[in-house]
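User: Could you check the structure of this?
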Amino acid sequence: MSRVKVVNPHPRNRLTAVAIRRLGAGRHADGGGLYLEVDPSGARRWILRTVVQGKRRDIGLGGASYVSLADAREAAQKMRGIARQGGDPLTERNRQRRQGVTFEAAARRVHKEQVVPNNRNAKHIAQWLSSIETYVFPHIGARPVAGIDQADVLRILEPIWIAKPETARRVRQRLRAILDWARTSGHFEGVNPVEGVERGLPRQRDRARHFAAVPWQELPELWPRLTEAKGFGAMALRFAILTAARSGEVRGALWEEIDLTAATWTISADRMKAGLPHRVPLSPPALALLSEVHGVHDRLAFPSTKGGLLSDMTLSAVLKRMKVPATVHGFRSSFRDWAEEATPYPYAAKEAALAHTVKNKVEAAYRRSDLFEIRRQMMDDWAKHVVSDVQ
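Assistant: Sure, the predicted structure tokens are below.
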């Protein structure tokens, strides 16, 4: 009796770059032990399941937001090769990282490739690097970026956080950019150690703002007063706060952009500052507000009394009448401060919620997701905070 030949019993390359963006929660096989693991929150990471020195191991290869499918396959192939030869892929990877690029080398590369080409201000270009040379290099300049942790960042910022607050904020921002480049370039995995470091630092009291903003802690107290204000301008203002959107985006909101069933507002590229379409998850309070104005106008969600667009000053006038010393745009700052100081959400999700452009070209190439499901939970949490005193 002849045997039936089994063709390719362990197929590889099952996944595609397009398909992985639509996969739901669970562990999805690409073949050869490589899996895409998707959390219920929407977080995605690559896992290699293989046998290392006689024991089955799960080895993390990094998040799918910055490690592409092709890169994950390449990394998995290298690790399988080490394991087949009797070695330990994790030990080898850690050894290579310890010998990897230093923080100083990473900083100088980011300065050369990103700061210099994208800035015309010679003073800013010089100050960018000099601040890192002064405050950071003495601490971690010679260290491999893979070995830098949040405690290192804290030690850098602590001495200047209160004494030189503006300088400290700039150093923090530049540290984040350098380590973001290092992470997306494959020099280390996981969360940027700059994220959330503010929780270990005293509160700064001199923070200068380009737009006057209500401190996020005071918004629940202000919200009942906002709900008492009458007119479409007041309702548009509340919607802007709940969605962290710009005034123009809210004033021009069209019913054709809003899917009440899916709780999603999709703003077309031609209405966005960055020229890219933007999806906004709508929280229950935002949906409730829309239900109040649904059907009033055939196209605009928040029309003027004459049926056209609200004027640029309409929302600001609401705050002026209430004697609230803030701008409409300042509520975006309130949201960003709340997200930074009171939540564990990733930096990329906070920036995506504000529709900020990714200036780091390497990170922009890897960030193929708008982190929508993570942002949905974040905007729900924001709404719960804002309206907490009236629930």
